[in-house]
Amino acid sequence: MKGKMLSIYLIGLKFFLYNIIIKHKNDTVLFVGHGNINQALIAVITQKKASDVFNIKKQPNTAVDVIDIDEDKNHKIILQNCIKHLE
Questions:
Q1: Structurally, how many domains does the chain consist of?
Q2: pLDDT value at position 59?
Q3: How far apart are CA 43 and CA 71, in angstroms?
Q4: What angle do CA 33, 38, 44 make, to 5 degrees?
Q5: What's the CA gap between 63 and 18, in Å, rounded?
Q6: Containing structural domain, residue 68
Q7: How confident is the chain (87 residues) per 10-residue block, as mean pLDDT?
């Protein structure tokens, strides 16, 4: 996915993410995904441009990310690409 389609995809993902933030303001939410969706989600959370999505390091299989997301857009990546559970 490239160019304009990727930008549209990220807009949809951003809309989805912020709806989750509003709906689950004080909750812990688990997202399960893989590959490009995780890269795109991290791009949205870190406010990257569409052209930067594929510069985000790909995740190994079963990798875990922990991200603190808040409604003020003060998002923090606590843990990224962790595979310690495989050791």
A1: 1
A2: 85
A3: 17
A4: 130
A5: 24
A6: 3-86
A7: 78 90 88 83 87 85 87 84 92
